[in-house]
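quick one before i forget lol
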Amino acid sequence: MPLVRFNTARDLMDAFPTAQQDIDVEPSDAPSIQFLRSLLAAGSFNQAIAFCAYLLPRREAVGWACRCVRRLDTQRSAAEEACLRMAEDWVVDPEESHRLAALEIGMRSDPGWPCSWLALAAGWSGGNVLLGIQATAMAPPQQTARAVRAALLTVISRLAPAERNAGLRSCIEDGLRIAAEEK
């Protein structure tokens, strides 16, 4: 059984209030992996990135984005690397302490960094997102997908224009492999 959370593209878009806006493609009853492949084949790379971010389970989506960012952006500062490592720590061991550490570093890091969005993607994966106060607020369910999408589109924007399509294609192909894996 594939790793996807939704049988069809329409199921995915019905499940998330922001998905259709973020993906910017009309929903269809095509099977999710087939729909993702059709976006890739059509060169609709931004839409495919967004669709894959929503399609994969949260932990797999964050892990996918971390691998893509690590591969595409090799010129990270020490602070950016710290954000990336926090997100990867949560992927490897999705304990609450790792989620909170990722959320904290993501909240205080530069929103222009892809790695800040990776840390936030891990931090917004569940649980309370209010740090240091005696109140509770749960992250909306789409926040991890939105942060993954932001991280990937931000890292792509750092590439030379001639490298962007190849970078997007490699990320989407990696996401497709993950989505098609058996549980």
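fyi The mean pLDDT is 94.
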